[in-house]
Amino acid sequence: MDISKNLSLIRHRLAQACDRAGRRPDSVTLMAVTKGQPPEAVDEAARLGVNLFGENKVQEAKAKTPLCSGQLRWHMIGHLQSNKCRDAVGLFSMIQSVDSLALAEELSKRAGQAGKHLQVLLEVNAVGESSKFGYAPDQLLADLPRINALPSLEIQGLMTVPPWSPMAETLRPVFRQLRELKHRGEDILGAPLPCLSMGMSGDFEVAIEEGSTLIRIGTALFGPRAKPLRPD
Ligand SMILES: *Cc1c(COP(=O)(O)O)cnc(C)c1O
């Protein structure tokens, strides 16, 4: 795997998508998703200028982050159980996968105990897939004021993992829906939600055209992941 070459291509495609949408390339942050990848891959991406990394399991992040060089920024992007919140608060500067009021309350409690303010995104299950975690849009809007009132959390925006599709173009309405939901959230809060985390290896250009500010890229950067030993 030539991570350097892959990264150049991704940055080029990112810039072109921004150009098509009349946006500045620096309005989109590139996250390297390192689940299933070794610390050496993280170090290589960091050396090439990537400064944001994502993991989807607390255990894997806990094992990996101490083996990586330098001060890196990590976000949690996978489903979080309440008994892992304390560890998560120590490992991550942002939790992108808040999907219930109960989880938000637990995170706020744990962040408070650690003397931290924790940035969060609310994860949206935009098309109601039963196999996926995430808020239904209506429930998200209903819970928003209460999450916003929690003392140690700062809501930064929304995140989604759309259904898998071989044709990214078919996901455009999903990304658009998320952008519109963000606007409705901003109206409710009376404050801006700066972050819209959407777009992965197969669909990030469409996501950028529809307003993504943070794309989460795994396989297009690092190649295929090692299979986990057992599913969980
Ligand atoms: C694995 C993962 C990604 C990266 O997916 P790729 O298709 O490999 O780019 C992005 N977001 C989440 C939440 C993931 O779990």
Sheet/helix structural class: alpha/beta
What's the number of domains? 1
CATH superfamily caption: Alanine racemase
Describe the main β-sheet briefly.
8 strands, parallel
Please give the number of β-strands.
8
**Global mean pLDDT:** 96
**What ligands are attached or bound here?**
pyridoxal-5'-phosphate
Strand content: 15-25%
Which CATH class is shown? Alpha Beta
Q: Major sheet: order of its strands?
A: 7-6-5-4-3-2-1-8
Report the C-alpha radius of gyration, rounded.
Answer: 17 Å
Q: Globular, elongated, flat, extended or rod-shaped: what is the shape?
A: globular
Write the layout of secondary structure elements.
Elements: H1 3-21, E1 29-33, H2 39-47, E2 52-55, H3 58-64, E3 73-76, H4 85-91, E4 94-98, H5 101-113, E5 118-124, H6 137-148, E6 153-160, H7 172-189, E7 195-197, H8 204-209, E8 214-217, H9 219-222
Helix pairs in contact: 4-5, 6-7
The structure holds pyridoxal-5'-phosphate.
